[in-house]
Amino acid sequence: MSRFRFLHGPYLLFAAIGLSHMQGAPESVRAAQVPSADRVACEAQSVGLRTSASMTYDTRLRQVVMLGGTAEQSAALLPTSLWTWNGETWKCLSADGPPGRRDAFLEFDDARRELVFFGGRRFVNRDIEYFTDTWVWNGAAWNLRDTKGPGPRIHGASAYDPQRRAVIVHGGASPEGHLRDTWRWSGADWQEIRWTLPFNGNGNSVVAADGRLMLLAAERGVSECGELQRARVFRISLENELTDAQSPGPCFSQQVPATAFAGGIVLFAGWNGPHSPAESWTWSNGRWQRTESAPTRRRGAAAAYDPIRKRVVLFGGTDDNGILGDTWEFDGTRWSRIRSVLGFSGSRVLEFAVR
């Protein structure tokens, strides 16, 4: 039987919980030393193949950044390195990050000028270990800021809210099942705020578009979607009221990346069922539209929007053959695969995807 463990910090490990039905009474409660993560210097690393990483835009660096995930390198299966993307190449910024994990939350706190990294999980033998710690990166070093957090979770929604001047985390999944709660990062701890979804479903992504916070939600039980969910967009007021944008979107499988872009929201539906092709959709001015191209089929990809270059960046994931290490960009019209050319500084090749 697989078990769940909760990691409240980099050193202490607590309660194991039965897997059956995603809930159950604790099988054991103990504290144990968590093995330190493998550290590999930046000079010895390449971004490599990676899935279930965390990605956001750092306004201080003015670049997209990526952290964590599961890699294929034997020296660092759970990499702790922080990477930046300048539009042409990935560069390792720091190798000494928080303990390695996948499916975590990463956002830039613009009010405090620091990255915020929370939650996630890792697989150890037949155990699933959930992290509840919160780390911040001040541009020079990582610091553990909180150990309790909003509770163990993965695959949730997060964004920086320019109106509340805080990082927001919503929903996700825990050992107990789907979550619908919402939390605000104060800079020192997490404070719960109340949102109410007016239908059967949960949030997939939170984005800040045109200075407003918006929730891309997944509605379950829609007959024409079968086992998939219907995309729904809600505007969120400062009073925490959700207003339906009245624009039912495509059917998609959750745990896929969606992010802001210049005109609204981009949704990459990369894993809609066995052997189904990937799709990409945009939501802008209350209207959904399928893009003319999309990255190849995958799940576990990470994505973020670069507002300076006006590009959505997508990296890695897993397809039917294993872990991927490719980088794609969306310019508002079409997706392009970016491939650095070795030996030619600053040059690159664009490989256009076709639908």
Descriptive account of the structure:
The protein has 355 residues and is an all-beta fold. It has strands at 3-7, 13-18, 26-28, 50-51, 54-58, 63-67, 70-71, 82-85, 90-94, 105-109, 114-118, 121-124, 127-131, 134-137, 142-146, 157-161, 166-174, 177-185, 190-193, 201-209, 212-219, 229-236, 242-244, 251-252, 258-261, 264-269, 279-284, 287-290, 302-306, 311-319, 322-330, 335-340, 348-352. A hairpin with a 2-residue loop joins strand 20 (201-209) and strand 21 (212-219). The model is unreliable at 10-38 and 341-355 (pLDDT under 50).
In quaternary terms, these chains amount to single chain
CATH topology term: Neuraminidase
Terminus-to-terminus distance: 42 Å
Question: What is the level 1 CATH name?
Answer: Mainly Beta
- What's the overall average pLDDT, rounded? 83
Strand content: over 45%
Q: Quick one: CATH superfamily?
A: Kelch-type beta propeller
- Give the number of helices: 0
Counted beta strands: 33
What value does the Rg take, in angstroms? 19 Å
Detail the poorly predicted runs: 10-38, 341-355
Number of domains: 1
- The CATH architecture term is 6 Propeller
The largest beta-sheet arranges its strands as 3-2-1-13-12
What structural category do the secondary elements indicate? mainly beta
User: Can you tell me the overall shape?
Assistant: globular
Largest sheet: 5 strands, mixed
Name the helicity range: under 10%
